[in-house]
Design brief:
Blueprint: E1 12-15, H1 17-21, H2 31-43, E2 48-53, H3 66-72, E3 80-85, H4 88-97, E4 101-107, H5 110-117, H6 121-137, E5 141-147, H7 160-171, E6 178-182, H8 189-202, E7 208-212, H9 219-229, E8 233-236, H10 256-265, H11 274-288, H12 296-299
Parallel strand pairs: 1-2, 1-8, 2-3, 3-4, 4-5, 5-6, 6-7, 7-8
């Protein structure tokens, strides 16, 4: 007889829609619309939100107004704003703009890391250690994501041993957590279970966050597998919008409302209002001029899913 899976009573959701959800869209939203998007996420109960990336605006024009977005968020004391950076220049911009938390990405494959960041994976690890030290000195929270941890669009399968090795190296900076990202949406639950379990063995006490894309319709199953394996925090994007500009066909973050529905029906608390998420998904769809990718916003909720 198999033992029952012990699920947590609560998980944290990091809303990545304002950054990862918008960065690959052909429609560039105004600063005012982005600020309304973030305010709507806050009103639904989300508090830790990835609000912008501080990268080259010529490469990612949708994020060109990062400083203006941060300036408009100073009126929200409950917001824990996250800024994505890839180098020291980006860190300096994010810190000066007033980000509460710094996030950086290190790609598990050299080819993808070169295309995304113009550096090898090892060079990005060195940059991360420097940025983490600067963030610590500035009194900022800081965390790192290992991108393409389950597969690379250019190199194919990524050995789990490589991801573990990268995690051990970035952990030397003592981040608040390490995230593993299925950037191109190729993972399946058994991979997630194995990687999370191996990471928890290799780095006991280090919080692990999960970031999944639904490109091949496995994102929600992977999110469940991650939580069952001990992940306490999940990234998600309202509506399921998003994707990496440098990864072919890597569209579709797991939709926040779909994740909340799944967790709520399993008795896991998130503190997020599902109806407000669905409303915001439709609002965002109207402004981007394309249908909501997520399923729940099309089908609607069900009485068993608690509002918060």
């Amino acid at each position: 007889m198999t033992s029952p899976i012990l699920l947590p009573s609560h998980i944290e959701i990091v809303e990545v829609g304002p950054r990862d959800g918008l960065q690959n869209e052909s429609t560039v939203l105004s600063t005012e619309t982005k600020l309304e998007f973030i305010q709507r996420a806050l009103s639904a109960g989300l508090r830790r939100i990835e609000v912008a990336s501080f990268v080259n605006p010529k490469r990612v024009p949708t994020m060109a107004d990062a400083e203006a977005v941060l300036a408009g968020l100073r009126q929200y004391p409950d917001l824990q704003s996250i800024g994505l950076v890839l180098n020291v220049k980006g860190f300096e911009r994010a810190a000066a703009a007033g980000c509460h938390e710094i996030g950086m990405a290190v790609v598990a494959s050299d080819t993808f890391n070169q295309r995304n960041q113009g550096a090898t994976t090892q060079e990005s690890i060195v940059a991360w250690l420097d940025i983490a030290a600067r963030a610590r000195a500035a009194g900022l929270r800081y965390q790192v994501t290992i991108s393409a941890a389950f597969g690379c669009p250019f190199e194919g399968e990524v050995p789990i041993e490589r991801v573990i090795d990268i995690a051990k190296q970035v952990a030397q900076a003592q981040p608040i957590e390490i995230a593993v990202a299925d950037t191109i949406g190729v993972a399946v639950p058994t991979q997630v279970t194995e990687l999370v379990s191996r990471l928890r063995e290799a780095l006991p006490g280090m919080p692990i966050r999960g970031h999944f894309h639904n490109t091949r319709n496995t994102g929600l199953a992977n999110a469940y597998a991650a939580v069952a394996a001990g992940v306490a925090t999940l990234d998600a994007s309202i509506g399921g919008f998003g994707g990496c500009p440098f990864a072919p066909a890597a569209t579709g973050n797991v939709p926040t409302e779909d994740v909340i529905y799944l967790m709520s029906r399993m008795g896991i608390q998130t503190g997020i209002n599902l109806d407000r998420l669905i409303d915001t998904a439709h609002w965002l769809s109207d402004r981007l001029g394309r249908p909501v990718p997520g399923a729940l916003s099309k089908a609607g909720s069900f009485p068993g899913a608690r509002a918060a």
